[in-house]
Amino acid sequence: MRRPSRIRSLAVAGAAILLAVMASPAQAHEPWDDGSVPPPPPSSPADGYSQNMHLLGTDAHTGGVNSDLAFSGNLVYAGHYGGFRIIDISEPGSPAELADVHCNGPQGDVSVWGGLLFLSVDTPQSTPGCEGSRNVTASTPGAWEGVRVFDVSDPRAPRFLQAIRTDCGSHTHTLVPREDGGTYIYVASYPLSATNIGPDCQAPFERISVIDVPGGDAAAGLAAKVVAEPTVKGIDLFSGASGDFFACHDIQVLTPRKLAAAACLSQGQLWDISNPMAPRVIANVDTPDVDIWHSAAFTHDGKYVTFGDEYFGPAQEPFGAIWTYAVDDPATPLSHLRIPRAEPSTYHNFNYVPVAGRNILVSSAYGSGTSMVDLTDPSNPKEIAYYDMQSNQWSTYWYNGLIIANDISRGVDVIRFSGPQTAGAKKLPMLNPQTQTFLLR
């Protein structure tokens, strides 16, 4: 079964496209003949900011598309379509770039584990490694896409270790930590663009890849490999260039409850990951007013889950909203909230502030910048802060008292929120936003 879409034929979930100018997201998955990184679309007009949001500093990275973020200690790992950067935020007002690793391969989803960094590539490349890597098509002989592994134990001198091929590449990925010091990686990918269709990338797809990483050092990075390709099916299919398929965009895991929330383009799902090599679908979440199920995040008490709708149409209620559900009974949404401004917008990548007794969500919103939402009463969400100064933000997350945004066009912004709602927030040694390893009561 395939639910009709208002604009899905024009949109690719996760594409770095500014809603304010309504560029076609499909271009983020097309090859560029010269192998260069595509320029970002222009930023939106400046809409302003709330009085409780304060820009502390920006580490600029212009000329290419900036994408997702990961964190460890005082370091921010900022992906982009040409590789990734490592930025020191120990002085939040003066973020300092330590390294910019040039390794072509959109779209640059990143995560860190010990001294390792993993980088998603979902556009076929001419070479697995960084040298000479350029965008090709999946039918090009020797074409590669998947997950690249780097040793970042010296943040000023990252070192490429290996490239792990996965079916349909890697649009996003999620770490699933183990008690033995290793981690699994759930790789989400799909056959959406015609240039991605190849022998191992065909509709209806219906699977993820699982990579085993036996530790956090360079030896473990070199030993990492695909160990499973579990089937994941849904009740709804998504329209692709070469047939309808089922596959997931973002996956967040809640390891204390052995759960995952999967935003699977055509629907949301909850998975039992008691056996991480074989996730089991325990709930299909199907809300007709969600156009593209893009992102997911659990609250830190584990009671609720929020899904984001990546919507590329004109500004209208309720499209592009966040939708919140009870984890134990997700049949009906408890609430939704669309950006309360009259512009095309969508909640994109987000996480919850780790503070006990409150549910405060921090989210990027493309041309609407950054938005903070109080969901302590999940049936009555309220925006409590925003920052939108010529913005084009792909990812925004809360990390250790700061809000870190990777603006597609501008680079990394460091923002401080001065309201009382985040008082007492837990400090973390590291953060991969799609991996939640603790509960707060």
TrEMBL record:
Span list, region Disordered: 28-53
Alphabetized, the UniProt keywords read: Signal
Q: Does the keyword Transcription regulation apply?
A: no
Q: Cross-referenced Pfam families, in alphabetical order?
A: LVIVD
**Annotated signal sequence range:** 1-28
Q: Has UniProt tagged this entry with the keyword Cell wall biogenesis/degradation?
A: no
Listed name of the protein: LVIVD repeat-containing protein
